[in-house]
Amino acid sequence: SLRAGIVGLPNVGKSTLFNSVVENGKAQAANFPFCTIEPNVGIVAVPDPRLNVLAELNKSHRAVPASIEFVDIAGLVKGASQGEGLGNKFLSHIREVDSILQVVRCFEDNDIVHVNGKVDPRSDIDVINLELVFSDLDQIEKRLEKLKKSKVKDSQSKLKEEAERSALERIQKNLMDGRPARTVSLTDFEKESIQHLCLLTMKPIIYVANVAESDIAEPGSNPHVREITDLASELNSGLVTISAQVESELTELPLEERIEYLKSLGVSESGLGNLIRATYTLLGLRTYFTSGEKETRAWTIHAGMTAPQAAGVIHSDFEKGFIRAETVAYEDFVAAGSLAAAREKGLLRSEGKEYIVQEGDVMLFRFNV
Ligand code: GDP
């Protein structure tokens, strides 16, 4: 499944958030066919009310939500990009995730020491951004040196290396001004040519503004949140507000009391849902469903994936042997009430290899083994 790495300076609320995520994951574990959780990895279900509707219509034995893995990457501090040992280890952990969630402290509390002496989310963001920028600059410099000495002969490889060189030089220029690689516009060919480098500042990042519980109903009333809203769009980053404290308190409450507690704070759901939705939006993710008597299940794909590619998310054999997919839109399925009724009404389509899977498609794959 998708991996999101949680980073941030010390004392901003990372562990509080991560532990709540893990507790939440444990509470849902009964629904999961996969419930092994490593110490620094928490698996959570992607909340989706459509899942249970489908499961009920099809009388499925179980409903399996899509999931996201949260990885706690504590320890990214100033100087990490220079450090040979630990620092590098943190950076290599970041290289392995699909997106970065940077927890940024926006709550005031004199009892909790801030590493820089005061709550200053802009500076927190700069510190971590710079570490990632330094690491990328270092890598790009080495790669450009190598490209200079390259002796490739065939024109195809030359073209590719030319695209890579040009992209890297532009990225390098931006990085020197502190601007992440993801802010540089690149052609698809250029993107492909630099993919092997796994640049850290190319990764989608969401700032998770950790606010006091009194601010969650109206995050805009917090001046720190207002301050980093512009910064987020400048740096091509997402922004979500959450209260790690509230998330943590929620895990202590029995399920039936959680809604009451949230209501008393002026919100209708936990911040985790927002965080997951923001990740979906930022990464351009979509959900499709498979549904039958055995189970109804949500699958995560990237926007623009074809039917065989989407089938490949379930199993690579499904992609290789793909013949066609019986497809019905979620709303059509629900309106018809059953697959048979949808078929009768002509709402069930037979789609081939070129079909681009749409958000909420309910799919049945036909394939050769
Ligand atoms: P980490 O070092 O980033 O992992 O930070 P922790 O999660 O350990 O939090 C540091 C301290 O801040 C702990 O004492 C938390 O209880 C406290 N803390 C975390 N989130 C909040 C919050 O939203 N409000 C307040 N007042 N304290 C918080």
Automatic annotation (TrEMBL):
Coiled-coil segments on the chain, per record: 130-157
Residues covered by the OBG-type G domain: 2-262
GO cellular component terms attached to this protein's record: cytoplasm
Main location: cytoplasm
Highest taxon listed in the record's lineage: Eukaryota
Positions with a binding annotation for ATP: N11, V12, G13, K14, S15, T16, V211
InterPro entries for this protein: ATPase_YchF/OLA1 (IPR004396), Beta-grasp_dom_sf (IPR012675), G_OBG (IPR031167), GTP-bd (IPR006073), P-loop_NTPase (IPR027417), TGS-like (IPR012676), TGS-like_dom_sf (IPR023192), YchF_C (IPR013029)
GO molecular function: ATP binding; ATP hydrolysis activity; GTP binding; metal ion binding; ribosomal large subunit binding
Keywords per UniProt: ATP-binding, Coiled coil, Cytoplasm, Hydrolase, Metal-binding, Nucleotide-binding
Subcellular location: Cytoplasm
Family indicated by similarity: Belongs to the TRAFAC class OBG-HflX-like GTPase superfamily. OBG GTPase family. YchF/OLA1 subfamily.
Protein's job: Hydrolyzes ATP, and can also hydrolyze GTP with lower efficiency. Has lower affinity for GTP.
PANTHER family, per database record: OBG GTPASE FAMILY, OBG-TYPE G DOMAIN-CONTAINING PROTEIN
NCBIfam families per record: redox-regulated ATPase YchF
Subunit structure as annotated in this protein's UniProt entry: Monomer.
Protein's recorded name: Obg-like ATPase 1
Organism the protein comes from: Acorus calamus (Sweet flag)
